[in-house]
Write a structure and sequence with these properties.
The chain is of the alpha+beta class. The protein contains 13 helices and 22 strands. Helix 6 packs across helix 7 and helix 8 runs antiparallel to helix 9. The protein binds adenosine-5'-triphosphate. One of its GO terms (molecular function) is phosphoribosylamine-glycine ligase activity.
């Protein structure tokens, strides 16, 4: 069976790598892909927002399954588009339809859903330009810090944690009045700031049954010690030591099960991954966000821990047999470190030659993100460039291996965090 993966990050490279281990997968195409995905798979240079172009490609190359790595295509309705066509509906799309993708596409929709189905989350209210004055009043009476979120997709940049009233008003004005994030900030969610430790939980679900994937913790800030600006993610670790059985039981009962109930009641016809961003507040799980696809860099840490054939898992998703599906998980720890361009997440230069990949030990996985081939040379082509993942019996060993691999890969001004996972050291389930 031929498969098409949508996206160009290390997440999509990891999905392609994992799917290529399946005896059921013939050709794997990645649209648009990167230099890493072109090595063992085929890149398809198509505009992923142009569904007609994707449909033509799928027909020409006999694609039977589409795995959507990134959220925009889902929010834009890629699944609905394929399902609604007589000629395309036989293609299995891993990723929810537009209605389900709203769980990520609109923070107001998400918070409403959480509240309606009594899923623990921070207290909140949503405001628009018309209710600007009410938002100011709300902020006057709020405790600080307070969190302001642009309603729509803002590539991880639409969340401001304001330390005081002035900062909050500034953010509010920027979002609602100056449309800092365009249409995405025509509504703003203002919510209570929760103090705790974050963890990402992933399921694959058909809206009724689900398979629980390994959990992960990601590191969003650019600087060591979790300082500086937010990035797409600088590294990840899986499993997460503080996630014990008691915590997971609470997550299942208070979060996952009511989420599936809500999906059914709202008729979201969900088929795909659901990434549940949680914060543990004194051991109690609260939902920070849903994402309707896998995370990046979490995917690079969790897929190497899955021993099962994920193609079979995708088939079970579409056959509605996930309830009987047993996922086999490697108990070892996976540590992922992301190498990024100097200056990222602000201005950075591209086109720098990448060297040293040959010095990475063969048991360390290398997933490309912003890379491309230029005159047969591998060069940087984005902010986040390469993720390395090491597996080992202990977290310390996995981290040491991943850091050593990161050190071996180089280009002018490359940067990476040397403290991924350090905050988890000594923590036990
Ligand atoms: P991303 O795209 O990076 O996943 P996002 O833009 O969808 O993020 P959120 O995940 O809702 O936005 O928030 C981003 C980050 O802000 C969270 O990972 C968390 O660290 C912090 N955050 C969000 N809401 C809260 C909250 N209520 N209390 C404390 N921290 C929060």
């Amino acid at each position: 069976m031929n498969v098409l993966i949508i996206g160009s990050g290390a997440r999509e490279h990891a999905i392609a790598w994992k799917l290529s281990q399946s005896e059921y997968c013939d050709k794997i195409f990645v649209a648009p892909g990167n230099a890493g995905t072109s090595e063992f798979h085929t890149n398809a240079s198509i505009d992923i927002h142009d569904f007609n172009e994707l449909a033509k490609f799928a027909t020409d190359f006999n694609i039977m399954m589409i795995v959507v790595g990134q959220e925009n295509a889902l929010v834009e309705g890629i699944h609905d588009f394929f399902q609604e066509s007589e000629y395309l509906k036989h293609i299995l799309v891993v990723g929810p339809k537009k209605a389900g993708a709203m769980l990520e596409g609109s923070k107001d929709f998400c918070k409403n859903f959480l509240q309606k189905y009594s899923i623990p989350t921070a207290r909140y209210q949503t405001f628009t330009e018309d209710t600007y004055r009410n938002a100011v009043e709300y902020l006057k009476n709020h405790t600080y810090p307070v969190v302001l979120k642009a309603d729509g997709l803002a590539a991880g940049k639409g969340v401001i944690i304001a330390q005081d009233f002035e900062e909050a008003i500034d953010a509010l004005e920027n979002m609602l009045r100056h449309r800092r994030f365009g249409k995405a900030s025509s509504k703003v969610v203002i919510e209570e700031y929760l103090v705790g430790i974050e963890v990402s939980v992933f399921i694959l679900t058909d809206g009724k049954d689900y398979v629980l994937l390994p959990e992960a913790k990601d590191y969003k800030r650019i600087g060591e010690g979790d300082t500086g600006l937010n990035t797409g993610g600088m590294g990840a670790v899986s499993p997460v030591p503080f996630v014990n059985e008691a915590f997971m039981q609470k997550v299942k009962e208070r979060v996952i099960e009511p989420t599936l109930r809500g999906m059914q009641e709202e008729k979201l016809e969900y088929t795909g991954f659901l990434f549940i961003g949680l914060i543990s507040v004194n051991g109690e799980p609260y939902v920070i966000e849903y994402n309707v696809r896998l995370g990046d860099p979490e995917t690079e840490a969790i897929l190497p821990r899955i021993k099962s054939d994920i193609f079979e898992m995708f088939r079970a998703l579409h056959d509605h047999t996930l309830g009987e599906y047993k996922l086999e998980i490697d108990p070892r720890t996976a540590a992922t470190v992301f190498l990024v361009s100097g200056g990222y997440p602000e201005g950075f230069e591209k086109g720098k030659e990448i060297t040293g990949l040959e010095n990475v030990p063969s048991d360390v996985l290398v997933f490309h993100a912003g890379t491309k081939l230029l005159n047969d040379k591998l060069v940087s082509n984005g902010g986040r460039v390469i993720a390395v993942t090491a597996l080992a019996d202990t977290m310390d060993e996995a981290l040491a291996k991943a850091n050593a691999a990161a050190e071996a890969i180089n280009w002018q001004d490359r940067n990476y965090r040397r403290d991924i996972g350090f905050d988890l050291k000594g923590m036990h389930a």
